[in-house]
Amino acid sequence: MGDLIMNPTRKKIVVVAFSFLLLSSLGGFLVIKHILDNMIILQESEGWWVGNPEDFGFDVAKLQWVYDWANKRDYMRSVLIVRHGVLVAEWYFNDGARDKAFHIHSSSKSVLSAIFGIAYEMGYIPDLDKKMMDYFPEYEYLNLDPWKYNITIRHLLQMKGGLEFDDSGASWLEYAGSSDWVRYALELPKSHEPGEDWDYSTPQTNLLSVILTKATGMSTKQFADLYLFGPLDITIAQWSQDPQGYYTGGHEMYFTPRDMAKFGLLYLNNGTLNGEEIVSTEWVLESIQNYEYGNRIESIFRYIETSSAGYGYQWWTATFSDHFCYMARGCCGQVIYCIPSLDLVVVTTAKGTVMDNPIVFDQIAYIDLFLVYNIIPTIILNS
Length: 383
Fold this sequence. Notes:
Blueprint: H1 11-19, E1 20-26, E2 29-34, E3 39-45, E4 48-50, H2 60-71, E5 76-83, E6 86-92, E7 102-103, H3 108-121, H4 153-157, H5 169-176, H6 181-186, H7 202-216, H8 220-232, E8 238-239, E9 253-255, H9 257-268, E10 272-273, E11 276-277, H10 281-287, H11 295-298, E12 307-311, E13 316-320, E14 323-330, E15 334-339, E16 344-350, H12 360-375
Antiparallel strand pairs: 1-2, 2-3, 3-4, 5-6, 5-16, 7-9, 8-9, 10-11, 12-13, 13-14, 14-15, 15-16
Helix pairs in contact: 3-7, 3-8
């Protein structure tokens, strides 16, 4: 069959490999025969092993109800469920399709975090506490406020730079319409002293992309193609650039749902896939720490009781139904959920943009409910 991008190597399959008598390949199928004659059959599909959900701990009757819920939502595009490294559910709705890439909105931020972490581990970024303005000497003529010279790379990663921007549709029109996005970001007013509070704003992530380009001598896309997308066999369908030609960091990346799942599985595996470390384990673990707690972050999850809701290096964290989860989250429902205790990745995509009716901001909250009250309960305990 050749080399596969996705080898099922985590919990259940590891156990299976030791307790099964026969492991054979028949055309596009992997057949695993148990000593008690129970059989799991995995089919190869474009670099994934695809299996039946009942073989991976799901209550199929409940899972049918999950499908029905999603199918009734006119905004849903896809739901993918990966357990123990195997794709066990792949559903498309409305205009969604397996090979159709859509804008993943702010889930792009978590992808940028991975790219930045690779650059850091390779030595291109010598110190996360290096000052942001060290990378922008060409803007010294602006005579910026002194506090902006105290913003560090780490502050930007944690959304603690203190650059005030509310990510509303009106703010986006002004920002996107400016002739120099870097200058616009550097001239933003102060929401708080750098490092002293948390204030989510996409221009901070876009500045990280510019810093990466300056540090590596490559565009962010060139660097990502070499060290992240290439090893993952991911092709980014579209990626926007600012007026100066810098690739965006916090938005405007287009991926297929399967490629989103592949990225999520990389992070579920602490940066390793198919035996190859692509992002260092240290960076992954550092990225999913909670560097900010509080009501503002917990309010993001609106309708769900969460504990330990927080924000890492461009990753959201929360505890859902007693399970720690870290997430790439994008407007309207572009989400990659990683739940290590269940060895689970769930990907959702949905219609909508920040410019649409405000109800689109409820969609992602409804999808959180969908995960907590529908998907997680379909998993049979101890499976």
